[in-house]
Amino acid sequence: MTTSTPTLSNIAFGDNPGRWPxxxxxxxxxxxxxxxxxxxxxxxxxxxxDLELLRRRSRGSLVSLAHSTRASFLRQLGWHDRARSWDGRxxxxxxxxxxxxxxxxxxxxxxxxxxGRFAASARALDRAAELGAESARIGVRLAWVSAELAxxxxxxxxxxxxxxxxxxxxxxxxxxxxxxxxxxxxxxALCCTGDLDGSRQVAEAALDDAEHHGMIPLRWxxxxxxxxxxxTTRSPxxxxxxxxxSADTVRSRGGVWATSCDGSTxx
Length: 267
Fold this sequence. Notes:
Layout: H1 4-13, H2 28-40, H3 44-57, H4 61-76, H5 80-93, H6 98-114, H7 118-130, H8 136-152, H9 156-173, H10 176-193, H11 196-213, H12 216-229, H13 236-252
């Protein structure tokens, strides 16, 4: 590893996800880590610039991961249809790398889920699991999308089980960002079962963590959930302000919301 790589890895996948500015990239891997870290903070212009530079400078599975990461940014902003082409290219570029291949397939599963193609989503998840990628990160992502698929199908109990698996896997992985995203998924799954008190409890604690770490996209997602189910720790006006302020911050950092996901217009 270079001098920058351990620090960037800790920001992207460790306990310091909110650090800014990011260290300069020395290697192609550093560019990917910088993009992952910046994307978690909602700094999409910076993240996309690093991914574009990576795509020009590198080849092979790392470029596949760059495409998957670009797709994940589009999904975060509500563009599941646009994300699909990036994940498709990621799959084609993955070659024999099981992590890159699984990453792309999980992305394709999330893309299909986002447009209501549940059977296609399930098939992609099955294929991703069959690759057997020995990656803690992949295990967490598989659990996320499995939970989201179960929610889409109205299978609340299964969704909670998958979400709880994600929480445990994220804790073992040691990534604050993955732990926080797993809590977002768990809060949504509990809401799906009708356990609104449990959902609020998880979401309110996670919102505090999102604010502490500067995870603006996840802050928006949690506030959006609490706008719908109510909060016991914040007033309705405060939760709406957090949601809309987060959406504005994302826009100021280069994110372009799909209309249905724009925090200023969401119900």
